[in-house]
Amino acid sequence: MTRIGFVQLNSCGGCLFSILANPVFLDVLKSAEICYFPLVSELNALEKADVVVVEGCVTCESEEKLIRQIYTAGATIIPLGTCATHGGIMSQAEHMQSNPVGKYVDIETRLPGCPPPQSLIGSLLLSMVHGTEFSLPKKSVCSECAYTMDQDFSNEIRYINPPETPRSCFIREGVLCLGPVTMGGCGAKCVRVGTPCDGCFGSLERNMPAALANLISVLKISPELQGQAALAGRYQKPTLRLEK
Amino acid sequence: MDVCSSHAIDLDRESQTTKFTVGGIILAMGAELCSPEEIGTTLPVSYDPYNDVISSYEFERLCAPDGPTKGKLIRVSDGTPAKSIVVLQCISSQRSCSGYCCSIAQKYIDIVNETEDDVSISVLYDRALMPDEPSVTILDDSNAHVCNIERVRKTGRYHIIETDSGTYKADLIVLNMGMQPNKNITKLQADIGFNLSHDEYILPMSLPTGIWACGSATGPKVYPELVREAQLAALEALIFLYQESHETTETTATVITENCGLCGLCIEACPHHAITLVENAIRIDPFKCKGCGICASTCPTRGITDSVIQDEIPAALAALSKWKKSPKILVLSCESCGYGAVDNAGVRRYEYDPGALVVSVPCIGCIDANLITSSLQGGFDGVLLVGGYEGTCKHLKGVQLARQRIDSLVKLLGNEIKDRVRLLTVSAMEGHKVADQINQFVEEIGGTPEV
Lengths: 244, 451
Known about the structure:
- The structure holds 2 protein chains of 2 kinds.
- By secondary structure, chain A is an alpha/beta fold.
- Chain A has helices spanning 14-21, 24-31, 61-72, 82-86, 118-130, 189-192, 208-218; strands at 3-8, 33-36, 51-55, 76-80, 156-157, 220-221.
- Chain B has 4 domains: 31-180, FAD/NAD(P)-binding domain; 182-242, no CATH class; 253-305, Alpha-Beta Plaits, CATH 3.30.70.20; 321-445, 3-Layer(aba) Sandwich (Rossmann fold), CATH 3.40.50.
- In chain B, strand 14 and strand 15 form a beta hairpin.
- The A-B interface holds A 138-143, 148-149, 151-154, 179-182, 184, 203-207, 209-219, 227, 231-232, 238-241 and B 258-265, 267-269, 277, 280, 297-298, 300-303, 368-370, 372-373, 376-377, 401, 404-405, 407-409, 411-414, 416-417, 451.
């Protein structure tokens, strides 16, 4: 029986709540042993865990120490959510470190998202408990978008926030949307409700600053928007050395 | 109208636009002669026929036996015979050699010497007007002189041309006009999509498959070369049209459908308009594709493979990153201008630091930001991209794209890479620039510990 620990570092807790809300979690309760989950229980046997799901980013030495400890103890670490995989929304804080878990230890499986969609959380939990295969989407948000095949990149990008709900592809309407370079899997939810993709999943296999540089070089960004922080993405501190 | 037996003359016909479907297009619209009115005022002596400063076209008419003067060389102002003629060379709106004016000057010398006994002719090359690198050997004749024209003044009947190598007296000055690109080129460029060379003629390498250019549309040339080029273009077109099937020799990109996110970035990025959306799938036209790899590097989901981009370059980088040398600089040069310049540095024996490892890539636009960051992480201390001048790129926007990528990468990553990534634009003959830049780069980066 797999023993699972759920660790929360600096985060809002949304990803762990998503796990609680996932129907597969009932299966986890039946077929696996949860040994550490301070958010909902008093269980306190992290050292016994085979698999540790980590939510949140690393901001101080004690957290870094904790991550290294879990890793040396031999447990598999699975970062859950964009804070754990990329540093997350806290990267926007200027005078604070917000490092992804992968900066300190080797990571094999990870699941980004703010929060990750229930379908992916479900298949991650199943893979943890039953050893089924879990893989991240290979396509970008555009492939899941309602406005697929409606793109037009020849227009100038003039807005970060859409002035009104668009009736076609954001980029066609001159709104910066990070959909093309962002990993899919979310079903382009944000776009469906009228918000451009802000890249919470991070980029596909390449690192986000590089992917953004590639995107920005092809798009025609208006002079007023040049140099705006939003162009750098919200969920990752731009850094060269990203993961171990 | 009445005499034409086949009634081919229709006086009421109006101009109309007709559409043709053709298998190939040869652009041979030629160049234009420079206009003496436009550039004649920027010269040491202004174009003014009534002051006996005429252009070579007018002089041709004076020389012509069937011309207005029946071949008599006269002064335009008063109709008296011209006795001392000075031909000013290299009169062009551009500082590039037109190639044919020297032989025309030779013709004038011959005409004057053969037909007139008491007329003197001098051909003057003003160093201020001469192109830096003439494409032909300039006239070697006792009447031809290279000089610096200092002053031109008028005394009575004569223009006195004062130069550093003597004073010339002229009662007729001929401005030997060069050529300039056809004014319709920009319109064609918008319709077809090609690039212009540094002197704004068509760059034949950048033309899409099925379209050729020949003659002075691609730059100034002398007559035999024009004929040769026209024959070549006609042959190429014929071979192209007579084949039952076409094979592409370029490494072309292919779409991996299961990775394709259908974002359409590649459509926008492709400089050759080779990528289209057909029935909800990205399709690459292999005959328009020139194998630059820009699409493969732009694709955020690795949905396009290009064997060079995906396998060869990373393999080369992996091999080079094991090499222990400090500081170690990765020089990525495009295979046209960039590698030409690096090669030129070798041929001319310019010394550059051995820590620079040169990799040739199809186009520097195929270097995506990720390749730069990963090679910096992989042990290289600096990355130098060497490409052609913007506007001369055979993949149209390769250099521009590389510049934008580096700019945005530097903006995003800031100080971490600011001094470690550079872009150098050169022509294939500028090996010294590459060597200088590499040495300067190594010097500046040297001693910087690995980040």
